[in-house]
Amino acid sequence: MNDQSSASRGRCDSTAWVGVDPSQDYTRPPPLSRPRIVRAALSLVDEKGLPALTMRALATELEVSPMALYNHVRDKEELVDLMLDLVLGEVDTSATEGDWLTQLRALARSYHQALTAHHELAQAYRGRVRIGPHGLLVIERAIGLLLEGGFSPPEASDAFFALFTYTVGFEQMGYIVRLRGGATHEGGEAGYYPLLPPEQIPAVTTVGPHLDGVHRPGRFDYGLDLLLAGLQAKLAQSGKAAAAPS
Amino acid sequence: MNDQSSASRGRCDSTAWVGVDPSQDYTRPPPLSRPRIVRAALSLVDEKGLPALTMRALATELEVSPMALYNHVRDKEELVDLMLDLVLGEVDTSATEGDWLTQLRALARSYHQALTAHHELAQAYRGRVRIGPHGLLVIERAIGLLLEGGFSPPEASDAFFALFTYTVGFEQMGYIVRLRGGATHEGGEAGYYPLLPPEQIPAVTTVGPHLDGVHRPGRFDYGLDLLLAGLQAKLAQSGKAAAAPS
DNA sequence: ACCTGAACACCGTTCAAGT
DNA sequence: ACCTGAACACCGTTCAAGT
User: What does the pLDDT look like over A151-184, one tens digit per residue?
Assistant: First the structure.
């Protein structure tokens, strides 16, 4: 497309501007394009959070008029869909080590990791989901592994949704904060302690600070393994267990 | 508070306005109050969806100036927190039939039911969650049952989050819709069929329409039972199973 | 085809003023 | 203490106009 580069290379070989391609205009940003918009939007959300994603803010980030975006993107909703699918492209869908169960675990973990890497965007994952090509690939892989494990199509679909729901839901869950408790609620992070006296909530008081954050390391894996163990048990009791390499 | 009623009752006994309390002013709405605002907001969201919840719209619904709301509610965020806690008040936390596992299942189901009853509001359940008194009661009950089952405090906390995350996540998940596939995407509901040819997604093609909606009846229970079975297995293998009535 | 500026129909919330 | 109207600083998006 840009054939000035080869032409200018021949013309400038006597000068010593090593490493600088004079055909490139380093002052002007590259032209607007769908992928560039989506990438810029994603890094904006990663840095400043989902509420900061504004067509106007994104436009100034790209040094362009707000309305220029609408030449490449139908509306904000589509933009968010594209961002989600871009993130889903980071999921590793091609690992083939181990049997179907360990592959399924690896897939869910990779999915989880992609979401945590863009934790702010994960909040957009609500209501109506519009699957893109990358998302479809993840689904294909998950369903494929479940069928390989021996599940019938309807049950594979149920199992998929359980895993999917848990993984996405985990990311959306934030921290538990009291609602206008006794002390200041400015601090924000200020712990699990509640609005009721300890006598009325003995169990919560016993468990105490373990309740504090959702995103304790290993917490995702705990629930994931619960689900996978449940799946394995289902297969075993229905006697349809696939011949797993023992 | 309104002691006009008893006074006027004595005054009007000769007239025949049966069933009509003349002390009541049926034309003017009852005075603004925190609970009334929250209830009105909830029914607005139930009817028209979360995006329709606007301080201005809520105010006109209550026949009041938008700014009147701010005398009872700090801001929109607090209003949503209050709405969520109101809904959590519908969860049955006092059923005592069966052992801890069946009680835990019943609790999760009741939680799920409360959320589905206000499906539109469930979308607000993201990011930072501010637990209110009703929410805290649900947590207390869940943790209590897990401790009763024999889990250690840290593990009870992990287990709780797995159940909590799954239940909330399930509600937020919408339908799978293709992202700007081949045909019209106006139809909306238009099925699972994807942007890739069937050869590239054999598993999805096999499972087919089973993938279509998340909220198929029984789908929530499937994942819930997976988690509960996993919990039971964990207890059994660590040999700490509580003496459940066999 | 792509970009722009002005404008429209909204938001949540602050503020000064009323009672 | 509670409510009001006007105003501020925003939104997403339409439209007519530019190149």
Answer: 999 999 999 999 999 999 999 887 666 554 433 3
Mean pLDDT to the nearest integer, A10-35 = 57
Decide: residue A18, CB within 10 A, 0-12 exposed, 13-18 middle, 19+ buried. Answer: exposed
Region A15-37: mean pLDDT is 64
Nucleotide nearest to B65 (CA to C1'): D4
Contact A232, B226 (CB under 8 A): no
Contacts of B206 in chain A (CB under 8 A): 143, 147, 153
Q: Does A125 touch chain B (CB under 8 A)?
A: yes
Nearest protein residue, CA measured to C1' of D3: B68
Report the mean per-residue pLDDT for chain A: 83
User: Is residue A113 very low, low, confident or very high in pLDDT (cuts 50, 70, 90)?
Assistant: very high
Distance B46 CA to D15 C1' (A): 35
Decide if B176 touches A, using CB distance below 8 A.
yes
Residue A129 β-bridge partners: B176
Rg of chain B over all Cα atoms, to the nearest angstrom: 25
List the domains of chain A with CATH numbers. Answer: 31-73 (1.10.10.60), 90-163+218-246 (1.10.357.10)
* Chain D footprint bases within 7 A of protein beta carbons: 1-6, 10-16
CA torsion B189-B192-B194-B198 (nearest 10°) is -150
pLDDT at B1: 35
Rounded distance between C-alpha atoms, residue B174 and residue B4, angstroms: 51
**Which tens digit of pLDDT belongs to each residue from A196-215?**
788 899 999 999 888 877 78
> In Å, what is the separation between the CA of B179 and the C1' of D17?
33
Nearest-CB residue to B136 (from A143, A157, A196): A196
pLDDT at A29 over 70: no
The alpha carbon dihedral of B201, B204, B205, B209 has a sign of negative
Angle, alpha carbons B240-B245-B246 (nearest 5°): 95
CA distance A179 to chain B (A): 5
Please check whether residue B140 is in contact with residue A203, taking contact to mean a CB–CB distance below 8 angstroms: yes
A18 token code pair = 């090593």
